[in-house]
Amino acid sequence: MGCAGSRPKGDDSSKKIRKPKPWKHPEAITRTQLMKMREEFWDTAPHYGGRQEIWDALHAAAEADLTLAQAIVDSAGVIVQRADLTICYDERGAKYELPKYVLSEPTNLIDEN
After folding, report:
1. Does domain 29-101 have CATH number 1.20.225.20?
2. What are the domain boundaries of the chain?
């Protein structure tokens, strides 16, 4: 028995999330191209398995500031393996992998002009 606020050792379900480390796309891309890549990912992600409500929560978290993102993943029961949200699990053990381009902008983002 422990106090009401204790958790078992190894319980990473409440891991504090953070922004991904800076990254570079293989080719310089525009914001429009980045947005298209993100849209395509979110449209197809549920087809790779997992539950739609977890994909929806991860989508909302990816577009939110860190405080709100933390609240979203915590309330959805998402188990965060990597603090940058690139690898997560749901309570049933399904794996969700998010590419960095849906979580942050590359260092080589170029102007549309």
Report:
1. yes
2. 29-101
Q: Report the predicted TM-score, pTM, of the whole model to 2 decimal places.
A: 0.84
Please, are residues 28 and 109 in contact by the beta-carbon 8 Å criterion?
Answer: yes
**Residue entry with tokens 């429009």:** 32
pLDDT along the chain (113 residues), means of 10: 44 73 93 96 94 97 96 96 96 96 94 79
- The answer to whether 23 and 104 have CB atoms below 8 angstroms apart is yes
| Residue owning tokens 């309330």 | 75
Token pair for 96: 């969700």
Which pair of structure tokens corresponds to residue 64?
Answer: 């939110």
Q: What SS3 string covers the chain?
A: CCCCCCCCCCCCCCCCCCCCCCCCCCCCEEHHHHHHHHHHHHHHHHHHCCCHHHHHHHHHHHCCCHHHHHHHHHHHCCEECCCCCCEEECCCCCEEECCHHHCCCCCCEECCC
